[in-house]
Amino acid sequence: xxxxQIIMIVTIALYLIMMLVIGFVCSKKNNSVGDFYLGGRKxxxxxxxxxxxxxxxxxxxxxxxxxxxxxxxxCDPGWTAFGLAIxxxxxxxxxxxxxxxxxxxxGSITIPDFFSNRWKEKKKVLLGVSAAIIxxxxxxxxxxxxxxxxxxxxSLFGIDYHxxxxxxxxxxxxxxxxxxxxxxxxxxxxxxxxxxxxxxxAVFLGISYAGGWDNVVNTATSLPGYISVSQTFDPTTGQAxxxxxxxxxxxAAWGLGYLGMPHFLLRFMAIRDSREIKTSRRIxxxxxxxxxxxAILIGVVGLGITANGELEKxxxxxxxxxxxxxxxxxxxxxxxxxxxxxxxxxxxxxxSTADSQLLAASSSASENLIRGTFGIKIxxxxxxxxxxxxxxxxxxxxxxxxxxxxxxxxQIVSFAWAGFGASFGPIVVAALFWKRSNKYGAVAGLIAxxxxxxxxxxxxxxxxxxxxxxxxxxxxxxxxxxxxxxSLLTPPPEKEITDEFDAVQQINRNKSTVVNAE
Length: 518
Hints:
CATH architecture: Up-down Bundle
Oligomer: single chain
Strand order of the largest sheet: 1-2
Number of strands: 2
CATH topology: Sodium/glucose cotransporter
CATH superfamily: Sodium/glucose cotransporter
Structural class: mainly alpha
């Protein structure tokens, strides 16, 4: 192993040790189940904003997005990024304050809790179904993160892909089990800083290795459809493919996912004061736009580096950041530290999402299924033990799902994103904005949205043509229709439910007035 590789490994090791230390420190602040799952609703606006975005982006930001741009140009990832930017701002603007106030008013510490408490269900059907959906979709989502870790260490250091996944999973599980939500959020803040540093370093040094900005532009413009918002480059044929309006809407529909992403919504619930959401919204929105723009640019720059002869053409485009870090290490020993920071950034993307996903999934298993749906009476201490055991089990299953080294980070993430966006998104909207919605409509929306993701992905989309669109868009629409139709065909919600809805709306208006006055 070369000196530069040793330096990069040491840099990464120091980063991982820091995450474990944070987990240990935060473990001393968990005095209740509410602290473990929601940090006692004590997050400040900066931690809330950056932990929300870091937990959202995952390895997709530094692997999936640059890889897609590297292979096919800016159109496909660009429209996806546009939709995500709009979705980020909209969710912070419209959903965050209402969800924070409603969940505090109803005493909810998880998203399934909120659904169940919102409609005062006694049989806990809604609670059980929503908890099961979280587990179903979070397992492959978590697996995508482990896959990214495996690819990183395998392609760079030659470490066995499977061994790298297992070691990464152990570190993530360790600090999450120790510190819970507070550890996940604190590490997410640090990881967002590492991710940002990695992006900035990669793009500037990448331009240098590509022979300058002019060479980057010339290489990109020489490929048909590569720099276009209405065409995409096909690397197999070397030709441009038209990007229709329906496909644009399909990719932009990624933004709908924010309305139903449990680990993202939990940050809204955890901020210490809903009046601080305005500050969080500005920080989060600006960071997302800059981060995704730079990530796409790195893909374009990576193509320029390849054309300049500094890199061989990548068999797996998603490893462009890894290849760039390795190139730095080979250039100079001191640059190996910089390369280590970039690799730590990739780990940060993965870990910041995986820890939040594991925590949400384990809370669904212990708090929502065992204590809520099945009504098994256990102490808070026992519930936290079960949550930690569930967290380990889910991590193991995630590793198994990602066992194939050829699995695509982008494809796995997109499917899980669609699952949450289509099943939870419409229900969150109905719960916060539609007084007439009821528990029957909510259950129908959950099932219809989740089922349609599978149906569209595996049965309808393969037909091709107009049907070959991202499954989130049609599934979201089907779920929304199911909620409205079933709610109107069944008895209206009880007076207790509508009175609480009115009370929370008044709280929202009062706090909005205070914020606007400030």
